[in-house]
Amino acid sequence: MQNAKDLKEYREELKESLDNEFLRTTLDNFAVAYKAGRANAFKDFDLPQLIDDVACAKDAAASRIEELYEEFKKTAEAAGAHVHLAKDADEANRIIADIAKKSDCKTVVKSKSMTAEETLLNHLLEDEGLEVTETDLGEWIIQLRHEGPTHMVMPAIHLSRHQVKDLFSQVTGKEQQSDIDKLVKVARRELRRKYVEADMGVTGANFAIAETGSIGLVTNEGNARLVSTLPRVHVALMGLDKLVPSLDDALKILKVLPRNATGQAITSYVTWITGRNECASAEDGKKEMHFVFLDNGRLEMAKDPVFGEVLRCVRCGACANVCPVYRLVGGHKMGHIYIGAIGLILTYFFHGKEKAKNLVQNCINCEACKDICAGGIDLPGLIKEIHARIQDEDGHALPSILLGKVMKNRKLFHGLLKAAKFARPAVADGEGYLRHLPMMFAKDQASVRCLPWPTTPSATVGKRSSRA
Amino acid sequence: MTKNIDKEMVDLFRTKAELVSATVAEVADMDAALQYAVELCDSKEACQLLLSGCEENLSGGAEALCETIAQKTICAPELPKKQFDQLKKLSDDKGFNCIAKGMRENLGGIDIGFTRVNLGIAETGSLVLNSCKEEVRIATMLAEIHVAVLKKSDIMADAFAVSDYLKKEMGKEADYHAFITGASRTADIERVLALGVHGPLELHILLLEG
Ligand code: SF4
Question: For residues B44 and A65, which has the higher predicted lDDT (pLDDT)?
Fold first, then answer.
């Protein structure tokens, strides 16, 4: 989360990250493993075609997003579910708090939802006196630590097993061991009780299918199945961008999402829910079902000729995985709530210029995210555009804090360049210079215009094949 | 009404399911499947979590939930009566508790959840399970081992091939379907894979002839 109040604080935070060896080693290892895993997952497929399918399906949905919402509402309401539309984060939280009040809910279990992170739902629910428990292991860990996620798919990637052990020892009041398998079992048992006690379950949704008024949930842990089964009330909170016309569109996205996110062909659980399902703890034996859609600027974005394609994002997290700057500083410094390249963009739209300002100048414009994006979004182009907008509004160039820090440390600097090359080999041309001038090296930084490339024979790579 | 069995598809399904650490076995008929489940229950530790969960230091409330587990339990919701009776008989012989419903009284967890699944997806080694009945959802999530019986002729090529079936089901007033692929997993701590974070620690798929 981006909480620095001013440049000075942001500078402090950056320094902390740059000094964090564990974080960097973890992210470095991850970047390498991710690349191999993804390549393997897609080896039997025509990847550009798959990405194109996602882009087309999402674009088509965005072009009639309001119509799809109406269709979803009609179908879902006919099945006895409640459908709500919130214009902003506060309204979404308010709606959910009101549902809790009206249905006399005291305890809430949640499965992971980036949309709920976007609205900071837990804060409001807790202020209203509700007990909220995250059940996704990573989310639970960061909830207990009172911090935001550092990755959209692996929220606690910045923490070591020893940190988790200390945390769990504190929570259970008993000494735990640093064995990951055992820590996972402790979470299993501790969280089981929470499901049993909960009145309300809150999930996100990866798909909202207009045709049948259904949602689709993609998870590995299976916690969304329990969250949507045991409590008597189920609230699914999702951005309007999750709407698709039919199941077939969802299946197209499902083909790419897990492969691009973690290199898995599919996650352990994909759950499709329509209407009010059987629920023994509900008064009439049927679940009280609410779908809450969040606008928060999405409707306007859908009409924007430049930024419309942002709505193609399926939140796979890949644009962070390959980002050399993310590898260097981690999620808390490379996004406010949404992390990675898409995080820089969404922070500007959802959380405002002030939160985005410190972030966008971190982009070195290496274009690795553009190559990897599940929706084929021109992420670097859009970041540049936002950069320009903020400069226009502020009337001066944004200072390059990260550059200053990194340039002072030879090891870090070369690490960054190597990471950029690894992420996207063709960033260097045959002569060993960066072809694109990273944004943070631009403008006032004329003296560093030509950056010496760490020389290895493989630096002379051919032109990359780009997707049309 | 004999459907064709595409051997290649069955092999692909098996390979993909095993890749995500599911155990795949062939059974000649339902009797053999029921036998498999009871034998598996017999050979497993009383509570696998005793080794790795209950024995861990838990807070008071979580420990109390563990204590509700008295006897080995198999839950088989939605089985035809004849098959359930047979399973019950086999279980009784071993001294296991065999139930078709009442999962809400067993939220501490059970040993085996036994289901027949509707379809299989070869491309990803996934099972398609109609989970409209709450008992099915809870049994397949809170069991330490999920044993699923899949007819070979119900294996489809990919998710698009099950879309007609699924659309019809999702078009009903209420519906809850799941694609299940391997056991419940997480990599949230240091990206190390751990199975059984909330749901089953093991998934056994029994491929039924026909
Ligand atoms: S912008 Fe693209 S790569 Fe990044 S999370 Fe969204 S879909 Fe994935």
Answer: A65
The average pLDDT across B132-141 equals 96
Pick the CATH number of B7-208 from 3.40.190.10, 3.40.50.10240, 3.40.50.10420, 3.40.50.2000: 3.40.50.10420
Contact between residue A227 and residue A135 where contact means Cβ atoms under 8 Å apart: yes
Q: How far is the CA of A120 from the centre of ligand 1 (A)?
A: 21
CA-based radius of gyration for chain B: 17
CA nearest neighbour of A427 among A378, A468, A366: A366
| Contact across the interface for B181 and A267, Cβ inside 8 Å | yes
Distance CA A187, CA A190 (A): 5
pTM (two decimals): 0.87
Helix, strand, coil content of chain B in percent (nearest 5): 40, 25, 35
CA angle B83, B85, B87 (to 5 degrees): 70
CA distance B85 to chain A (A): 25
Q: pLDDT by residue (tens digit) across A323-365?
A: 888 887 777 777 778 888 999 899 888 888 888 887 777 888 8
Q: Is A47-299 a CATH 3.40.50.300 domain?
A: no
Total beta-carbon pairs less than 8 A apart between chain A and chain B: 222
Atom of ligand 1 nearest to the CA of A340: 4
pLDDT at A199 over 80: yes
Question: What token pair was written down for A311?
Answer: 């709505």
Which of A315, A363, A367 best tests ligand 1's pocket when mutated (most atoms within 8 Å of CB)?
A: A315
Q: Would the pLDDT of A293 be above 70?
A: yes
| Residue B38, CA distances (Å) to A284, B46, B193 in order | 36, 13, 29
Pocket of ligand 1 (CB under 6 A): A 313-319, 340-342, 372-375, 377, 379
Q: Provide the residue ranges of all domains of chain A, joining segments of one domain with +.
A: 4-41+317-394, 47-299, 415-452
pLDDT of residue A337: 83
User: For residue B133, what pLDDT is reported?
Assistant: 96
Chain B residues with CB-CB distance to A270 below 8 A = 126, 178-179, 181
Which residues of chain B are within 8 Å of residue A211 when distances are taken between CB atoms?
167, 171
| Residue pLDDT, tens place only, A97-112 | 999 999 999 999 999 8
Mean residue pLDDT of chain A comes to: 84
CA A123, A124, A130, A135 dihedral sign is negative
What tokens were used for B92?
């009784």
**pLDDT tens digit string along B63-100?**
655 555 568 999 999 999 999 999 999 999 999 999 99
Token reading at A297: 């600027």
Please report residues of A whose CB lies closer than 8 A to that of B188: 136-138, 141, 154-156
Which residue from B16, B137, B191 is facing A154, i.e. has the nearest CB?
A: B191
Q: What is the rounded distance in angstroms from the CA atom of residue A236 to the CA atom of residue A25?
A: 36
Output the DSSP codes for B43-92. HS-S-HHIIIIITS---HHHHHHHTT--S-EEE-TT--HHHHHHHHHHHH
Rounded to a whole number, what is the distance in Å from the CA of B86 to chain A's nearest CA? 27
CA A253 to ligand 1 centroid distance, Å:
12
